Amino acid sequence: MNLRFGLGVAAICAVAGSTAMAQAPDPFANNDGAVPPPSEYKGPLFQLSHDYPPAPAPQPKEVPWRKAINNGPITVENAEAYTLALKQYIAADMRVLFNDYAAWNAGALGWYNEPWLGGIRESIHGTYVGSEDFPAALFAQSGLTKDFTTYVLTYYDRTAANTLTTLWGQTAMKPNITTAATQFMENSIVVKAALTTANADVWPAMQGALQWPLYITVNATTGNHKTPQVDNTSLMQFDVVVKDTQSAPKSGWVFATLVYDKDAPGKDIWDKMVPLGAMWGNDPDVNSAKDPKATLKENWINPKAPGYSTATLGWGGRLSGPNDGALNDAAFVTPGGTKKVQNTPSSSCLSCHGVAEWSMKSFLLPTTTLPPKVLDNDYLVMWTPGSPQWMRWFQSRPGNKPQDPGTVALDYDMVFAFKSLPAWQKATGKGTAPVLALRKNGKPVPSAELQYNGLPFVAPQ
Asked: What's the whole-model pTM score?
């Protein structure tokens, strides 16, 4: 099976050490240059929103999601109310995005995109590959009959975009990679939509889902194309993350995930995006290998969420959506030899984003090395679940404390760490950090094949 990371990394894979291009690189390119002909698509095209605000956004006098929990800490008991208030807060804008795309003007509404990813964005909606191939077997119980590819799209609200300003400036050519510049303001909101190439004809769970046409080549459901073509995709997942140190003082963040539910009541698609759950910490005091049934106190999973969405929860039942790749084929080195396990839960939303640092010294998953070692072309060599090394990924650190000493903490923003900063580095030939490279199928490139600035790649220790 292919490794599944859910972060759109496959398309920025390349050997590190490229020099600056003959033409000046454009950090604000709208797309990869492939635009559908009018015979295939006549609607609006994606326009990158990059007029980042020059000054911090004014803070609201009353914060609805905190009000929903009486301005106290978020808990398992009140997380649903918190999540629904957060969903309602962005509802008007998201209804324009999903119900009336022709009227969508991200910048006018105060939503912004990260720079440097034009080379991987398709041109209709600006999405890029999230995970290249989810096997049908993962979702067989909900009727999926073919593999699928996911495509993702991220927006930062005006408050969050203040960090785009402090990190990238107005040109995005000389990022200010410091802890101070990469920390998000309170009440910052980042959203991510995830779409699947498996539509209702092969996955009954997607019956009635929003259909977005994308101009793409990678499609595990119908087969990849040599040249782009317009394929329909279905809105499957929508993540909302908010900086809220009052409600979540340990990590400073609340990650909430909505998923499509064909049976949910409502008048439109936004109504049918229901909570899968929320998490505000990694429950570091719960060793789910020693006690798999232990109760989590920093995670809430909606018991009414559709079945397909709970099939791929993370380690110990921690929050991870169907797009997020929490189940992976792993090889564990034990005293009795190497043990290979398929589709083992090995991640969570916060454990993956917790390695947002520059330069990265740990992989997204609890692997023993970076780049990860891969056995038999599929199995990531990981630390033993529940071991002290494994538990490094399952802490509830504040966003200004990196997982690995000697790196710059990026406040849980994996787009910075794993996409936009590596893309800037590759395009400009600047920076000193090794770029982690992945093949198009999402598998890490062995370190022996990598080079950095013309020299052999040396993995961080």
From this structure: 0.92
